[in-house]
Amino acid sequence: MPIDAARLKELVGGPLAEGLIHVATNRPADQVDCLGKWLLNWAKMQEDAEVQKAKQEVAEAAYQERQAQLKLQDGQKAATDAMLAIEQSRRDDLTTFLESSTDLDEMQKKVIAQLNVDLGAACYIGLVGNGTDDEGNPTEEKSCEYILADAKNEMMVGQTLDANEGATWDVYKIPEVEEPEVDEEGNPVPVPAPEYLHIPNVLRDYNIDPETGAKDLRMKFFNYPQLGSYLCVPCNYGSSLHADAPETPPEAEADDDGNLGEVPDITKPKELLICLDTIGKAKGVPFSDAQIAMAVDLAKKLSAGLARAEAQLYLESCKHLAEAAEENAKMLEELAEAGGGEDIEAELEKQKEAGMSEDDLKALEAQMRINAANAQVVSLKQKFAELERYRVPPKQEAMDVLEGVLYLLKYTKKDLGGKATDWQKMRRLFDNEFFNRLQAWDPKAKAKSSPYQKVASVKSKLEGKELESLNKLSVVYGALWSWGTAAITAKEVEIAAREAAEAASS
């Protein structure tokens, strides 16, 4: 009786059972030969299966490794994209700030900070103007005074670059063109000024003396020379905040037909230089084209922003000046009604009759007048706060008075902005510290003075001014002029008395 397949698999099991089932099922003529071939084929199938399994495992491992690499790359790309997004957001925020802010100092500081980060370079801004002599008088030569720098290069602030000193001035040289372009009428088209000056290697940029062959570096180093590159970008714009700006905004005039023309331009050119260098950094790698383009673009945005901001501040200042003029007129009336306070002349006459000497009378008069001037200035302390609101510099006669008094109180040119007075810095000086210095001022005090702080120099700034004219501009100017002239007189009396005492004792 034949055994069924299930019973055979149970009795024998494994590959042999599978082979016997195959033979029992198919019943070949040569059952032994069939079973042998089936077992050989089974073995080969098992071997092929192992090989295929190994291949699948290798493929799976390679696949998993590739997926891990892709995930890592995606993570790195995501991190890079996030960083780029942050950087772009910062640049966009700066652009928005430059297009809307009226904080002139902060606008320049943010530009410096952005360039410092994006270009990895030292960054500082210079103001181009006329040079000055030791007395502060303007000269015909140009000069660049550095007014702002990043945190690590603050030593640059206050440094000056005189005309034709160093290579920076090459940024103003108009390039020569062999075949200039012409307009439709055949006239040559003016060649635009350079957008930047780039010196890839400052140590290899030099002039050679034709007679001696000696090499002279064109770059001026404020520290010792080092390898590096230098980039200078002009930032020029029309400034509305200058002493000659009218106190009332100009309006467009109509022609005979009633057509309005253009509003008169009251701006004056103002030139800034944005300077960057990698001196002593990263082996002095030159700035790339992309970095240069970024600096040029930011300089244009800053110039547009400063022009817009100054125009807005000018209009606001005109409004403040109009309001202050009305208040000033009322104060002049009140001062006239109040009279001059203590009758100095009567007191002097009284002391003269009592036998006071001429020298003592001069000293008494000087002290009384400076006391009266002190009291008047202090009484106007609240009105001094207006000076900080005035973004348009005062007229020259008022500016002379302010400078003279500040120098007499030992403020320095740097405090006032540098070699050339910067009203945007000077206007912030009339604070509590100013009043403390003024009230503590003593004609007998001795202190080391710069030439511009000496009595003769200050006196020259105060001379030729009229109290009535200054008062019409502002009672503040009139009060400071009165204090300054009284202080100068007191100082001259004290100097004369000291010299007389020294002569008598010798």
Secondary-structure blueprint:
Elements: H1 5-11, H2 14-26, H3 31-100, H4 104-119, E1 122-132, E2 138-149, E3 160-162, E4 197-199, E5 206-208, E6 215-217, E7 230-239, E8 268-277, H5 289-338, H6 344-353, H7 358-379, H8 381-389, H9 396-408, H10 423-426, H11 432-440, H12 455-462, H13 467-473, H14 475-505
Antiparallel strand pairs: 1-2, 1-8, 2-3, 4-7, 5-6, 7-8
Could you write a compact summary of the structure shown?
With 506 residues, this protein is an alpha+beta fold. The chain is 53% helix and 11% strand.
Describe the structure.
This protein folds into 3 domains: 100 residues; 165 residues, Beta-Lactamase, CATH 3.30.450.40; 166 residues, Histone Acetyltransferase, Chain A (Up-down Bundle). The protein has 506 residues and is of the alpha+beta class. The chain contains 14 helices and 8 strands. Strand 1 and strand 2 form a beta hairpin. Helix 3 runs parallel beside helix 5 and helix 12 runs antiparallel to helix 14. The chain is 53% helix and 11% strand. A 6-stranded antiparallel β-sheet has the order 3-2-1-8-7-4, with helices on one face. The termini are far apart.
Count of distinct strands:
8
Profile the largest sheet.
6 strands, antiparallel
CATH C-level name of the largest domain: Mainly Alpha
The fold-level CATH name of the largest domain is: Histone Acetyltransferase, Chain A
What is the average per-residue confidence, as pLDDT, rounded to a whole number? 84
Topology as H/E string? HHHHEEEEEEEEHHHHHHHHHH
User: Could you name the ranges where pLDDT drops below 50 across 5 or more consecutive residues?
Assistant: none
CATH architecture of the largest domain: Up-down Bundle
Q: How much strand?
A: 5-15%
- Whole-number tally of structural domains: 3
- Helical content, roughly? 40-55%
* Rg, alpha carbons: 43 Å
How many individual helices?
14
Spatial shape: elongated
